[in-house]
Amino acid sequence: MSGLILTERKQGAGFCVKNSDMVLTSMAELCYYIYHNIYALDAGFFDEDFFDFLKAMEQDALIQKLNIDILSGRHYTVFAEDVILYTDYYSTEEKKRISREFQKIKNRTPAENEKARADLLYHQGRTGEALREYQLLLQLPPEKTEDEITADTWNNIGVIKVKAFHYKKALLCFEKAADTAAKEEYLDNLICTLLLLKENENEAEAGEAERIKREYMQKYQITQEVMDRYAAVITQETQRIEMEEETKIFRQMVSAEGQTDLTEYYRNTGKVIDGWKEEYREQETERQSE
Predict the structure, then answer these.
(1) CB-based contacts of 178: which residues, under 8 Å, 6+ apart?
(2) Is 223 part of any domain?
(3) 117 and 209 in one domain?
(4) Is residue 244 one of the residues assigned to a domain?
(5) Which backbone phi and psi does 72 adopt, to 5 degrees?
(6) Could you tell me if residue 8 is inside a domain?
(7) Do both 183 and 99 map to the same domain?
(8) Last residue of a domain, one of 64, 92, 107
(9) Given 84, 107, 130, which residue is the final one in a domain?
(10) Which of 129, 135, 137, 112 lies closest to 17 in space, CA to CA?
(11) Using the 8-state DSSP alphabet, how is residue 12 labeled?
(12) How far apart are CA 193 and CA 185, in angstroms?
C-alpha cells in the first residue's frame, strides 16, 4: 500500500487522531493509519471518540469484539489487531506481518516501546513531539530502562540539536551518549559536530570553539589526524550533495536569473519560505520544551 486511500466514507463520520491534524473518514484510512503508525498507538487511542467513529461506520461486530477484549483486560495492541483483522483492506500476508509486529511490542519493555514511538515521530518529521518523547524517556528511573536506550536517546536528541544549528547543546548530548554506552556512532557524531562548530563560529567565538575542540580531543583521545580525516569526509560529502540533481533543481527553483515571467519564481520561493517557517516553528517547540 503506497498511500492513504479515501474510500467507504460516510457523511459526517470522522475520527480526529490526537496530537495530529489528521482526520480519518473511512475504515480504509483507519487501517492504513494503524498499519503505518504502530508505535504511535497507545491505549488512549481507543477512546470514546474512536468508538463513536466505529458506530458511524456501522462496525457493530468489531465494536462487540473490542468490548470483549477491553473487559478481558487485553493489551491495546489486541484492539489494533482487531481493527486490521475485521476489515478486508490488507492481504493475509500483510495481516500476518502486523500481527508479528504487535507481538514484538508486547514482548518489549515500556521503555523500548517509548523509544520506538519517539523514533517514529522523528522520522515522520514531527521533531518537536519526538524531542518531548525523548526527554520523557530520560526522566525514567534507571531501573526502568537500559544504558543502551538512554545512550541512543541522548544521541538522537543531539542529532535534532545539530539540525537546529545548536552545536554546543548537541555536543553535550553526544558526550552523555558516549559516556553512557560505547558505540562508534556517538563518537562519530561528536567529532563531526566539533568540526561544524569550528566552521560556523564567528571570529570572536573562534577561540572558544578551539578550546572546546581541544577539551573533547583530550577526553576521548582523538588525534588531529582523525579530525583531519573526518573533515575530509565532510568536505567530500558536501561536494557530492552540491552535484546531486536534487540540489541543482532546487537552485533552479529559487533562481530568477534569465526569467522574464517571475510568477513561477515567486511561487517556488514561497514554498521554500513556508518550509523554513515550519522548521522554525519546530525549533521553537524544541526550545520551549527545554
Answers:
(1) 151, 186, 187, 190, 220
(2) no
(3) yes
(4) no
(5) -85, -5
(6) no
(7) no
(8) 107
(9) 107
(10) 129
(11) T
(12) 12
Q: CB of 84 within 8 A of CB of 95?
A: yes
Q: What are phi and psi of 24, to 5 degrees?
A: -95, 130
DSSP string, 231-271: HHHHHHHHHHHHHSHHHHHHHHHT--TT-S--HHHHHHHHH
Count Cβ neighbours within 10 Å for each residue of 128-146 and write b for 16 or more, e otherwise: bbbbbbbeebeeeeeeebb
H helices, E strands: number in the chain: 14, 2
Q: What is the pLDDT of residues 119-153, one digit of tens each?
A: 988 888 888 889 999 999 999 888 888 999 999 99
Query: Does residue 7 belong to any structural domain of this protein?
Result: no
Task: List the domain range (segments joined by +) for residue 54.
Answer: 15-107
What total number of domains does the chain contain? 3
Q: pTM of the entire structure? A: 0.70
Inter-CA distances, 111 with 46, 115, 173, Å:
21, 6, 19
Residues 95 and 124 in one domain: no
pLDDT tens digits, one per residue of 62-93? 999 999 999 999 988 899 999 998 888 888 89
Q: Would you say residue 288 has pLDDT above 70? A: no
CA nearest to 115, candidates 158, 151, 162: 151
Residue 199, pLDDT score: 81
Strand, coil or helix: 17: coil
